[in-house]
Amino acid sequence: MGKKKQTTTRRDLMKSAVATATAFMFAPSHILGREGLTAPSEKLNLAFIGVGSRGGHNLSKFQEQNVVALCDVDEKYAEKSFSKYEDVPKYKDFRVMLDKHKDVDGVVVSTPDHTHAVAAMAVMERKKHLYVEKPLAHSIHEVRALMKAAQDNNVQTQLGNQGHSYDEMRKTREWIGEGAIGQVKEVQAWYTHSYGNGRARSKETPPVPETLDWDLWLGPARVSSLSS
Q1: Is 123 helix (H, G, I), strand (E, B) or coil?
Q2: Could you tell me the mean pLDDT of each successive run of 10 residues in the chain, 228 residues long?
Q3: Which of 54, 62, 103, 144 lies 20 to 30 Å (CA to CA) from residue 83?
Q4: How far apart are CA 148 and CA 155, in angstroms?
């Protein structure tokens, strides 16, 4: 007798092996084995922390999935994203959101840099798969702590170095690992966009917007260093 054929859904595959919800951000439909829309039974339940600017762009890439919760500390800044999901619960504190939504499969973190590590840790401690924008953390200690949390909680993770998801990067890594180009003694890298780098720090101290929860925005930052 032949073995009974087992059927694996995309949800099963995602939970047991390859990637978090964010893997689908970069993969076209034909690679995922589906030419039409995703079947409801295979959709992922996703929550988003930070949905303005970059977070709004990331959110737009998951329209075929179940968006079950949105979080942002500034309701005006997030208004464009919030308005697209009127029936989806909104939060300012991601800890409250994560505690209320136990059915979440994965979380996308697109907050300002200083809250990446703390938000990522909160997600993984709740055993949820994770995509977090770069930079991952402020120190090697934080990076090592996050790596350990991912292993201890058996979750799939991805950092938002989008270019590293391309085949060219994988091939280069394989060539180096297999010794195809010999011993690498020097690597040169450059970046052509400024994105404001090198600008002097503003001396202006505008008031905190009424729509912004300042304490939640600060996250792990020391209040004393900002109040002087």
Answers
A1: helix
A2: 51 45 42 55 93 95 95 97 97 98 96 96 97 94 97 95 82 91 88 71 89 94 54
A3: 103
A4: 11
